[in-house]
Amino acid sequence: MLEALRSSSRLERILLQEDIEQGPQIRSIVEGAQERNVPVEMVGRRAMDRESNTNKHQGVIALAPDPDYIALDQLLLDATGGEEAALIVVLDGVEDPQNLGAIARSVDGAGGHGLVIPERRAAGVSPGAIRASAGALQHVPVSRVVNLSRALDEIKAAGLWTVGLDDHADQNYTDIDMTGPVALVIGSEGDGMSRIIREKCDFLASLPLRGQIESLNASVTAGIMLYEALRQRNP
Prior knowledge:
The chain is α/β, with parallel strands linked by helices. The protein has two domains: 62 residues, CATH 3.30.1330.30; 162 residues, Alpha/beta knot. It has a six-stranded parallel beta sheet with strand order 6-5-4-8-7-9, with helices on both faces. Strands 2-1-3 form a three-stranded mixed beta sheet. It is elongated, with a radius of gyration of 19 Å.
């Protein structure tokens, strides 16, 4: 909530449950809303439950318009226009909002420039994803594309190398040079990358697994890759 107030995100109003304890965090939210001229309404528990999409509102809800997605060409222009090499994450069918939020949090933490997600059969920027991102989705640009394969063509045309994470790839993730502009491609929770997306990638890399499981969670994989890129760029 505080991240939303501190960012440039649009907020329509904030609802506070009538019997909520007015502690320091609530006071900070009210003060932040006043600074941004966001109306604050006191409502009953039933009204809070009706407005909540998650049933975990804890007595405070921010109502916002539908999320703003950035056009892919604008995301690429912003990512390649600075002094640092571009670093974006492309998600191929990640359906869990919690994973999307966690990945956005890692993108923000590692200094990445944005996320690319497909329009169909994938998690979008929802209240659950925003909550899981701990505010990161208020700062990380997200482009939602109709055709992920064509989006990869645009990404490559903009000068980024595409690195796909594949459990069966022969090359270890630490052997991939990520000091230049790169897009990390992460597959879905169950099936990984689709065949056509896998074939579009310039490189395929795997993470070593020493235990009994066959793969890692998509958000864990993305976090490892993002911080390997950061390590290479800042040895």
